[in-house]
Backbone:
């Protein structure tokens, strides 16, 4: 008489290999492979580039033609465009970074990370690959912004070195924001929670800064906050580098300090949080 045997239970995905056993060269190779994988996903799903391609156009046209006549009162629309474009670089960096948080959260919810858990790859390579790809999307968005600005009359003659420096500094600052939103994506439970918290925090920071208007037009109490706002430092630095107007050294120094400080604080926390989530 034969006895029925219980079907074996499916094994849980194995945790990622201990990163301490993976050397820097292997980690770099894993990162490169994951960057390629993410780029292929973008190629297969071009809709994921909509924010990087359309957001610069929408924001520029909205503020220049809808609000430019009022906000830029006392100057021409071309002058306000020149004032606005460096600030919009900061906005695009935040927009791209915000999408990273929801993307990481969705990867856990849809089971993508379960596949990575079965692969002998370094944990940090998964997050670093996302940072690299999203930084590339950020550069695409800034490129579209500059093309639109040129069509609206922005004068690039003799400004290319400063504009290149502004792009580099904006990318550095935007990368630090990516780590912040990645940590949020690993900490909060839903994409809606990430988006809600991001809007609540970032909206006051955006408008209480020098991105859209000069702080000299604000009440004293608001101008005091604006002067310590990291977005003001970034916008002033980009504006000084790209236009050659206003102070440059101070805003650039503060932007580098904010970028390095935020990355040093949030990147290790994000990697540690990711390790815990992928080993449980």
Residues:
């Amino acid at each position: 008489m034969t006895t029925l045997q219980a079907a074996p239970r499916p094994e849980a995905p194995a945790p990622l290999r201990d990163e301490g056993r993976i050397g820097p060269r292997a980690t770099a190779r894993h990162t490169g492979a994951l960057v390629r994988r993410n780029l292929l996903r973008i190629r297969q799903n071009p809709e994921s580039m909509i924010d990087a391609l359309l957001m610069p156009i929408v924001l520029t046209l909205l503020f220049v033609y809808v609000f430019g006549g009022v906000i830029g009162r006392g100057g021409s629309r071309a002058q306000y465009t020149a004032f606005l474009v460096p600030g919009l670089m900061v906005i695009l960096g935040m927009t791209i970074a915000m999408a990273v948080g929801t993307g990481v959260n969705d990867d856990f919810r849809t089971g993508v990370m379960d596949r990575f858990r079965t692969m002998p790859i370094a944990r940090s390579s998964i997050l670093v690959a996302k940072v690299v790809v999203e930084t590339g999307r950020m550069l695409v968005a800034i490129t579209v912004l500059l093309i639109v600005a040129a069509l609206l009359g922005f004068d690039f003659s003799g400004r290319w070195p400063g504009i290149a420096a502004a792009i580099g500094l904006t990318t550095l600052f935007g990368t630090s924001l990516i780590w912040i939103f990645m940590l949020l994506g690993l900490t909060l439970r839903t994409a809606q929670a990430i988006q809600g918290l991001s809007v609540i925090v970032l909206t006051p920071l955006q408008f209480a800064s020098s991105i859209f208007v000069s702080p000299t037009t604000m009440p004293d109490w608001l101008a005091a906050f604006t002067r310590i706002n990291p977005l003001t430092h970034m916008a002033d630095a980009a504006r000084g580098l790209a236009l050659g107007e206003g102070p440059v050294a101070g805003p650039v120094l503060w932007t580098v300090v904010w970028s390095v400080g935020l990355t040093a604080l949030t990147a290790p926390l994000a990697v540690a949080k990711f390790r815990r989530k992928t080993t449980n």
Q: What stands out?
A: Residues 220 and 247 are 21 Å apart (CA to CA). The first helix runs from residue 24 to 44. The mean pLDDT is 85. The chain has ten helices and no strands.
